Amino acid sequence: MGKLGKYIDDAVARSALETAAQHADKAGRPTPFVWTGADWTTPGGERRDLPLIRRGMGEWLRDLGAGLHAAHAEAVDARARWKYLMDQMRELRIQANAATDPGAKEYLNEAADELARDASYIHIPAAPIDPDVVPVIGSVASEILSAPNSRATQLLSLASQFESFRAPMRDPGEWVKRLAAAPRSVHVRTTAVWDAFCVAEPVLARSLGATAGKRALFAAMDRRFGARRKLAGYEGWRGVALGE
Questions:
Q1: Positions of the region Disordered (predicted)?
Q2: Does 63 lie in the same domain as 142?
């Protein structure tokens, strides 16, 4: 697969995971694992091996996808039927354009017109969820369960971007300690420090307030990474840098 194909696959998977995160409360049970900023752990903070994480998250996503399909089956199935007819219609158009025999061209175009008419009669009910995304949630779940570790890990990384899959931020100092050390010679945007800030800052802003949350995280990162000079110039840190 080329780079473009992989980019499209990742974008589709991310959209499915975003939808799963938005509807996580409809799963009937909490996510079996959460992202702490450094590891996937149980909600209680216990670490598990990757195979157990893959199985837990894959099965949870699979069940959620099945539940969403059942809840919105009419819209999902109607959309799938419409897409199937339109795909068949487009294939016939391609064949008609390539046909050299006038009779064959006419026959193929008439068949394509009939499929287009059939598709136009399909009523797709309104739903609070994109019907195209629901089947993809199941596909992502299958990949997490059975794809090579590299692909499963990538999908879990995509999932970790969404708050529904993240552990609550309790102690920013303890959280920062679990991150890998960031070389002082490396620009902060290429290190775990900046990534950690982007994840932690909105969570801390809600729990501690914007300024207090940033100040707590800044202090913890400064102790861990010597981040004072690296981060003080960034827009997100202005007004909260600690005194010398």
A1: 22-42
A2: yes
125 assigned to some structural domain? no
- 78 in the same domain as 65: no
Q: Residue 11: is it exposed, middle or buried by C-beta count within 10 angstroms (0-12/13-18/19+)?
A: exposed
Q: Which tens digit of pLDDT belongs to each residue from 196-225? A: 666 666 666 666 666 676 677 777 767 766
The alpha-helical segments, DSSP class H, found in 34-101 are 50-71, 73-98
As a whole number of angstroms, the distance between CA 72 and CA 140 comes to 19
Report long-range pairs for 230-237 (Cβ below 8 Å, ≥24 apart). 230/184, 230/188, 230/193, 231/188, 231/193, 231/194, 231/197, 234/188, 236/197, 236/201
Residue 242 lies in a domain: no
Span 16-36, pLDDT tens digits: 999 999 888 887 788 999 987
Give the length of the chain: 244
Question: For residue 134, with 0-12 CB atoms within 10 Å meaning exposed, 13-18 middle and 19 or more buried, which class applies?
Answer: buried
149-159 and 3-22 are packed helices; what angle lies between their axes, rounded to 10 degrees? 50
Assess if residue 184 is contained within a domain.
yes
Q: Copy the structure tokens of residue 3.
A: 């780079």
Instruction: Provide the 3-class DSSP secondary structure of residue 234.
Output: coil
Q: How far apart are CA 157 and CA 120, in angstroms?
A: 40
Asked if residue 157 and residue 52 are part of one domain, the reply reads: yes
Residue 66 lies in a domain: yes
> Which of 104-108, 143-147, 212-216, 227-231 shows the highest mean pLDDT?
143-147
Of 127 and 22, the structure prediction assigns the larger pLDDT to: 22
Which residues constitute the domain of residue 229?
172-237
Q: Which residues of 196-205 are buried (b: 16+ CB within 10 A; e: fewer)?
A: bbebbbebbb
